[in-house]
Amino acid sequence: MRQPLVVGNWKMNGRVGEAEELAEAIAEAELDWDHVGAGICPPFPLIDRVAGTVGDSPVAWGAQNMHAEDGGAFTGEVHGPLLRDLGCTYVIVGHSERREHFGETNQQVAAKFFAAKRNGLVPIVCVGETEAERDAGRAEAVVRDQVQAVLGDGKEDVFRDAVIAYEPVWAIGTGRTATPEQAQEMHALIRDLVKAGYPVTGQSLKILYGGSMKAASAPELMAQDDIDGGLIGGASLKADEFIGILRAAVASDL
Ligand code: PGA
């Protein structure tokens, strides 16, 4: 059994006081923490505050992005060794907003993925098609390419100690969640791709769903065989909603 994982992606939201309040509420939630992993990815300057707030509670923390190099003249960027120093467990790479607004390519996403691994961070690599791609019947091909860019020549078991998040772009921040069937179909495809070369890793790999997941829609999504939790945007900014999703994850593991 794969233990479910729920990670909050705060995006470019939150001020110092709010961040501490939210992180504290999550860390103090009364939950059966043996049945769920939880993480919070705040904006870079808040990582240390969140870390200090959640302390040694079961809640881990991480970053929303990183640079592929381990240091150097890259103004405004943040490197893996620093995230490691800050105690980050996770780093999100290849979020669709990075792909769309900052032009990140599959190759750049793959480079970040490997930089994360090199630095002992667990990459959460995001994949997912746009609405136009789905309408054109290309959803599977797009997701396949995005996963393949990280798999490369398949000579290495790259997805061991990594997480994949399937986030259909048309469902992110829109209130339009993929149906559990649509999500399950894509999760199964992703798992099969990994399993083809690495059956053990494919079986144990956590594949999170992201895209307007709420406490109300989480149980049905998480009941699907290949959905192992969620990468949560909007609903991660409200303690009650996020804790509700964590509860759904716990229930899916019992
Ligand atoms: P959403 O965002 O939950 O607000 O749709 C998910 C994400 O972008 O990771």
Output mean pLDDT. Answer: 97
- By CATH, the architecture of one domain is named Alpha-Beta Barrel
* Biggest sheet architecture: 8 strands, parallel, barrel
Shape descriptor reads globular
> What's the CATH H-level homologous superfamily of one domain?
Aldolase class I
Q: State the total count of DSSP E strands.
A: 8
- Ligands, deduplicated: 2-phosphoglycolic acid
Query: Which structural class matches the secondary elements?
Result: alpha/beta
Strand order in space, largest sheet: 1-2-3-4-5-6-7-8
Ranges where pLDDT stays below 50 over 5 or more residues in a row are none
| Helix-residue proportion | 40-55%
Q: Distance between the terminal alpha carbons, to the nearest Å?
A: 10 Å
Q: Please compute the radius of gyration using only Cα atoms.
A: 17 Å
- CATH level 1 name of one domain: Alpha Beta
**What is the tally of helical segments?**
11
Outline the structure in words.
The protein has helices spanning 16-27, 47-54, 80-85, 96-101, 106-118, 131-135, 139-151, 180-197, 199-204, 218-222, 239-253; strands at residues 5-9, 37-41, 59-63, 90-93, 122-127, 163-166, 206-210, 229-232. The protein has 254 residues and is an alpha/beta fold. The protein has a domain at 64-231: Alpha-Beta Barrel (TIM Barrel), CATH 3.20.20.70. It has an eight-stranded parallel barrel with strand order 1-2-3-4-5-6-7-8, surrounded by six helices. β2, α2 and β3 form a beta-alpha-beta unit. α1 (16-27) packs parallel to α2 and α7 (139-151) packs parallel to α8. The model has no long low-confidence stretch (mean pLDDT 97). Bound molecules: 2-phosphoglycolic acid (PGA). The site of 2-phosphoglycolic acid has 13 residues, from β8.
